[in-house]
Structures are given as structure tokens and as C-alpha cells.
Amino acid sequence: MSLGEEALKNAVEEAKKNSKERNFTESIDLTVVLKGVDMRKTTNRLSQILELPYKLNKKVEICVVAKGDLALRAKKAGVFTLDPDEISSLASNPRKAKEFVKKFNFFIVQSNFMPTIGKYLGRFLGPRGKTPIPFPPTGDIEKRIESLRKSVNLSLKKQPVLHVPVGTKNMKTEEIVKNIKAVLSLLSTKFDLKHNLRTVLVKTTMGKPVKIYP
Predict the structure, then answer these.
(1) In this structure, are strands 46-51 and 80-82 parallel, antiparallel, or unpaired?
(2) CATH number for the domain that contains residue 196
(3) Do the Cβ atoms of 181 and 7 come closer than 8 Å?
(4) Per-residue confidence (pLDDT) for residue 2, from 0 to 100
(5) How far is the C-alpha of 153 from the C-alpha of 132, rounded, in Å?
(6) Of 114, 129, 148, which residue is a domain's last?
(7) I want to staple 55 with a disulfide (CB 3.0 to 4.6 A). Which of 15, 125, 127, 150 is the partner?
(8) Same domain as 182, residue 121
(9) What is the pTM of this model?
(10) Are residues 68 and 140 in the same domain?
(11) Pseudo-torsion of CA 174, 180, 181, 184, nearest 10°?
């Protein structure tokens, strides 16, 4: 299996080289296609947040649904906060709710308000793989926010295909490679990659895919 450090490094370098200069910073995206995996079985599905070794050089948008001290601390940490009392009115306008949910990468919810967000926003969050993260009112919200700023959401549902950002074009190749290895390492705890791996590709946002495996 050609997934060693050198193969990953060469693929990332080629993806960067093949990408034209843009007026924005392109992401480096990893695609993993599995085989022999029955996605009808819930045990083969995946929805997990992974903290990467290196932060992506792009803003990660986080929404904290909370009241009181937790909301104040979240706001001080520089993230958007939503008062739970506003959720029902937001959900009453489906178009507005979809646009709102689309804006954020992660949702942290004060634990006692989880039923509220599930009732009103669950139908908008679920299809986008944005499972709300319950959080205790007295927890270290600053630390959780910092962790999420280095994190990505890994989602495998109907198709055995994973798409996930692992870096940006202006990051060091070695950092991107370590992020790729972290994703593959997590997948290897759930699947037998020697038998279940069909294809691994890497590409920039607007660039052509570069095959890593096979």
C-alpha cells in the first residue's frame, strides 16, 4: 500500500504545483473511497470530529448556543453566540435556518438546551453532518473552541466516500501530510484499509486530483 510519508508528500507537492494562482487561498482536500463496505449497516457509518495535528490556515466558524456565563465566555473567545430563545423563531423560516446552519462548521450547545436545538434545528443540521456538541455550563469553553479550530468533521453516510479538508495551499507540505496521516489513522480504527481501500486522492479546491493510492 503506497501510503507512506514520501508518497503522501509527493502527491501534496504535485497538487500544489498543478494548481494555478488564485485570488483566494485554496484548500487541500483529501478524498478516500472505500470498497466492500455496506453503508446500509449503521456500524459502517461515520460521523466524528477529528482534531488535526496542524490548524488549517482558514477560519473555522463556530456557533455556541448558550445563556449566561457560558455565552459570555464564548463571546469573549471570539465566536458567534445564539440565545436559545431565538431558536424557534429562526427555525420558523426554513430558508433562513438553512443559510444560518450553512455558515458554521461546528455547533456547541449548552447541554440543557440540546432538546431545544434538536426539536427546531435538527432537520437542518442532520443532513449536513453537523451534529450539535453538548457542553456543560461550567466547562472550559475556551479550550473546546481552540480544539475545534484545529478540527474537521469526518462523515460517511450513504456512500463509502469521505471528503475532508486537510490543509491549505500556503501550509507546509509536512504539516498537510501529518494531517492526512491523522485522518487515515482514524479510518484504520474502523475499517481494514488493506482490504477496504479503493482510492485515495488529494487536490486543491480548483485543481486536478492527484492519486495517492493505488
Answers:
(1) unpaired
(2) 3.30.190.20
(3) no
(4) 57
(5) 12
(6) 148
(7) 150
(8) no
(9) 0.86
(10) yes
(11) -170
| E strand intervals along the chain | 27-34, 46-51, 62-65, 80-82, 106-110, 133-135, 151-156, 161-168, 197-204, 210-213
Bond from prior residue into 214 cis (ω within 30 degrees of 0): yes
Q: What's the pLDDT score for residue 18? A: 85
As a whole number of angstroms, the distance between CA 8 and CA 213 comes to: 10
Residues in the chain: 214
pLDDT for 23: 79
Kindly state the cell numbers that stand for 2.
Answer: 503506497
Q: Which residues of the chain have pLDDT under 50?
A: 1
Both 135 and 100 in one domain: the answer is: yes
DSSP letters, 121-161, are HHHHHGGGT---EEE-TTS-HHHHHHHHTTEEEEEESSSSE
Q: Do 66 and 139 have their domain in common? A: yes
* 109 and 122 fall within a common domain: yes
Q: Which long-range contacts (CB under 8 A, 24 or more apart) does 19-24 make?
A: 19/169, 19/204, 19/206, 19/207, 20/206, 20/207, 22/205, 22/206
Q: Same domain for 184 and 161?
A: yes
Total number of domains in the chain = 2
pLDDT for 126: 85
Domain region containing 177:
5-57+152-213
Q: Are 33 and 73 within one domain?
A: no
Q: What CA–CA distances, in Å, run from 145 to 4, 14, 103, 112?
A: 32, 33, 16, 19
Q: What is the largest CA-CA distance in the chain?
A: 53
